[in-house]
Amino acid sequence: MNADHTAPWLPEQGHAEQLMILLHGVGSEGRAMSPLARVLRHAFPQAALWTPDGFDAFDMGPAGRQWFSVRGVDEANRVERVTAVLPRLADAVRAVQVRTGVGPAATALVGFSQGSILSLELAQLH
Fold it and tell me: Which of 97, 98, 99, 101 gives the lowest tally of CB atoms within 10 Å of its CB?
C-alpha cells in the first residue's frame, strides 16, 4: 500500500474499477483512516483508495487537520461551514477520479465525524 496517504492507493494489478475516498474526523488526519483502507483494499482489490488530510490545520488543538472549523460552531452556522468547503472537496474528488480513471458511479465516499458530514452532503449534491 502506498505510504503517501495523500495520493490514492492503486490496485496492485490492473486498473482501478472503484474509488473509495475515506474522510477523517476533526482533529485527525488521513493516515488515521489507513486501517480501514487496508480492510477495504483486501475486500476490494481492484479499488483505488484515497485517505486525504483535511484542508486546514485543526484550529482547536496542537495537531491534526479539519475540513471546517468547529470553533464557535452551532446549529445556525454549521450549514454555512459545510456548504463553504463542499466545492473544494468536489474539486479534489474530481481530480482523484481523473487520476484513477474511475467515474462518479463507481466512487464511494466514506467518512467519520466531519468526514461523514461531508460525505453525505457531497453525495446529495452529486
Answer: 98
